[in-house]
Design a protein that fits this description.
Elements lengths: L1 H24 L6 E4 L22 E4 L10 E7 L25 E5 H4 L8 E6 L2 E11 L19 E4 L1 H6 L9 E8 L1
Parallel strand pairs: 3-7, 4-6
Antiparallel strand pairs: 1-2, 3-8, 4-7, 5-6, 5-8
């Protein structure tokens, strides 16, 4: 009986260690920090309440995102992909601007995966609704606070940055647009 208890405790210890190791291997740790620079006057578009970098503030950067599953947790943010919008330049995937009335998204660097999801659809679920949107851009988690990034900080590693069309399709009242806990998956 004593040896059975020892085997059971040993087995449980192995299972627990494996789960801890698996969780550690799937984690996404910060890759560094960048120091914010004050944007030149009029150079940070604050449409959709976008943040502008603050002089001297340290911003965390990531080269990875949490693992993708059939229902990946994320934070939905709002972005304009139109010319002159707070998204800055044209989209990375097709070098085009996209109407705010089209359901399109940018994914954090790790999920963008070097463009492997470009022009593919993802399904976004939140607020009791779902919508399909096309990936057209990267929400850069590795850099920011410069002209190329419209003087905005780096994206966190768990962002789905969406057009107004996505927020409308999810039925979120316009006054509540900004950040929303969602899940997403490849469509």
């Amino acid at each position: 009986m004593k040896s059975l208890k020892i085997v059971a405790i040993f087995s449980l210890s192995i299972i627990l260690a494996a789960q801890v190791l698996e969780g550690h291997l799937q984690s996404c740790n910060p890759s560094g920090k960048i120091r914010g620079k004050k944007p030149p006057p009029g150079q940070c578009n604050q449409e959709n309440d976008s943040d502008c970098c603050k002089q001297g503030k340290l911003y965390t950067t990531y080269k990875c995102s949490p693992p993708v599953s059939g229902s990946t947790k994320a934070v939905l943010t709002i972005n304009s992909f139109q010319k002159g919008g707070d998204g800055g330049g044209p989209s990375e995937c097709d070098n085009q601007y996209h109407s705010d009335d089209t359901p399109v998204v940018a994914l954090s660097t790790g999920w963008y995966s070097g463009g492997s999801r470009c022009l593919n659809n993802v399904t976004i679920s939140g607020n009791g609704q779902s919508v399909t949107a096309m990936v057209v851009d990267e929400c850069d988690s590795t850099m920011g606070c410069d002209e190329d990034h419209d003087y905005q900080p780096p994206c966190p590693n768990n962002i789905v940055d969406a057009s107004k069309a996505v927020w409308k399709a999810l039925g979120v009242p316009e006054g509540d647009w900004g950040e929303l806990d969602i899940t997403w998956s490849d469509a």
